[in-house]
Amino acid sequence: MKSVGALAAVSLNREVPAMSFDQRSNGPATIETQIVRLKLRHTWTTVMSSSEYRDNLHLRYTRGGVTGLGEGAPIVRYGENAESARKAVDFAREFLLAANPWHFEKVMAEVFRRVQGEYAAKAAIDIALMDWISQRLAVPLYRYFGLDARDTPVTTLSIGIDTPEITRQKVREAEPFPVLKIKVGLQTDEATLEAVRSVTKKPLRVDANEGWKDKEEAVRKINWLERQGVEFVEQPMPASMLEETRWVRSKVHIPIIADEACLHPTDIPRLANSYDGVNIKLMKCGGILEAFRMIQIAKSLGLKTMLGCMIESAIGVTAAAHLSPLVDYADLDGNLLIAHDPYSGVQVQRGKLILPDRPGLGLKPARGG
Length: 369
Ligand code: MG
Known about the structure:
- Helices cover 37% and strands 22% of the residues.
- It has 14 helices and 15 strands.
- Helix 3 (82-98) packs across helix 5 (119-136) and helix 9 packs parallel to helix 10.
C-alpha cells in the first residue's frame, strides 16, 4: 500500500509539461518541392518501358527547425509524372502548412480526400511527415513502428531486360547480392535466363510485369522457370486477368506474387484466391502509413508480403526499408540502380538491408552527391 500511495503522490504532484507536443510544433512550416533527375547506371528496360533517367519529386517539410524529407516516384502506368505530382503537392500546400503534423493520421486522410490519384505526391508528403515526426520523437522510424532492425530481409537486385552480353555483365556486377530479380515477359525470356544461369547459380526471382497474355503460355513459362531455380514469379499475367491467374496458380509449384494487381488496401482481399502474396510499394499506395496498413491486411489473409520500389533515391527506398522487418521479401534496390544518389540512408551488406540508427529516416547528404 505504501508504495502505491507514494507512486500516486508522485503522479499527482507532477506538473503537466508547460508545452504539449501540439504546442511545440506550432511555428511556421515551409514546404519546398524540387523535380530531381535521377540518371540510371544502365538503361532500364522492362515490358512497360525503357529509360535512361527518371524524374522524381523531392519534398522538404520544415517546421520548428526540423526538416522531413519526402520523395515521390510517379508511375507512368497510372498517368502520373513529376510535374503532376508537384501540382498535387501545390494543391494540398495551404492545407498542409496550416495542419498540425502531430495529427499525421488525420492529415494524411484529408490529403487522400482532397487529392485525386497522384499517389507519388501523396507518398512524398507522407514520407516527409513521418521523417519529421520520428526526428522530433528522436527515434529511427522503424522504432516508431515497434520493429527490430535485425529482422530486415535480404533485398534482391533487379536485372532489367537486356542483351545476353549485358545481362551477363549486370549479373557479375551483382556479385554481392545473394538473390537476384530478373525481369522477363518479352520474347527473349529463354535467352535472358540462359545468360543469367551461365554466370550464376544463385536463387532467382522473376518479374514478368504482366508480360504473358495467355494462361497456357504462363504455365509453360513458370514450369520451365521452376526448373531454373526460380523461387517465385511476380505478376505473370495482366492485373485484370484474376480468374486466369487463379487457374495458372493451380498448375504451378512456386508462389505467384501480385504487383500491378495490388495498388491499394482495398485491392488485397479479392487477390487472396489468385495469388500467394503481394508486392507493396509506397509509390503505388501513397506512403508509409498506407503501406503499413496493406502489410497488416495481407498478413491477416495469409498472404506473403513483399516491399518493392520504383527507381528512387535513398529517400523513398529508406522509407520503405524501415517497414521491411515486417515482410517476407524485399526488392528495395531502386537507389542502387541510379548513378548519383543525392542521399545516403539504408545500406546493403551481402544483400541484407541495414537500417540507419539515426532519428527519422536517418538520411544524410551523399558524399559528392
Ligand atoms: Mg514488379
